[in-house]
Specification:
Radius of gyration: 15 Å
Shape: globular
Distance between the termini: 43 Å
Strand content: 35-45%
Helix content: under 10%
Number of strands: 11
Largest sheet: 11 strands, antiparallel
Length: 180
């Protein structure tokens, strides 16, 4: 039900960690050491790497769908150290010019845990218009909600889907927060 790559170091990747999805083929269902799942679909077509031809940013991005038939989760690789010591940054956008989207940011240990294993700690609402949204999250601000070992992105919460659309995720980074 999921795709995972054998990671070179199961203790986690060192920081800074960056993923821009550029090295993967369009329609790729796997990204090194990430786990993907679509909990509502019988045919697993999402998440996948896409190369949108319109929108606020060009280049390859990870597409997550949210419909009555799709609830996508993408779990990042494990990062060395305590998540609360770092900052998570990423870009996201809605699919189309008028389509609104919501992206949930949380933690999860394994896609096999089911959608109920996703623990959200923040939400990004996107108004459409192909606008690129940049998000910087100092994870210390969410320390009590970081209950699992890996950062995860979800297009829905369990069987409850707040909006039905797809969205793109790009330029995911974990590094040290600013010192001031």
């Amino acid at each position: 039900a999921f795709f995972t790559t054998n990671c070179p170091d199961e203790t986690g990747f060192p920081i800074p960690y960056t993923q821009d999805f550029e090295k993967y083929a369009t329609n790729a269902k796997g990204v090194d050491c990430w786990q993907f799942e679509d909990y509502l679909a019988s045919t697993k077509t999402y998440p996948e790497v896409m190369n949108p031809t319109s929108g606020a940013v060009s280049g390859k991005q990870l597409e997550l769908w949210s419909t009555s038939a799709h609830n996508c989760v993408a779990i990042m690789p494990k990062i060395q150290g305590n998540l609360a010591d770092y900052m998570l940054s990423f870009d996201a956008r809605s699919y189309g010019a008028t389509t609104k989207s919501v992206l949930y940011i949380g933690t999860m240990d394994n896609v096999l845990d089911s959608a109920a294993g996703f623990a959200p700690f923040d939400t990004l609402y996107m108004d459409g218009g192909n606008e690129l949204y940049h998000k910087d999250l100092v994870l210390a601000d969410y320390a009590e909600k970081l209950i699992h070992s890996r950062i995860a992105f979800s297009s829905g919460l369990g069987s409850s889907l707040e909006m039905t659309s797809d969205m793109y995720l790009d330029n995911v980074k974990i590094g040290m927060p600013p010192s001031c």
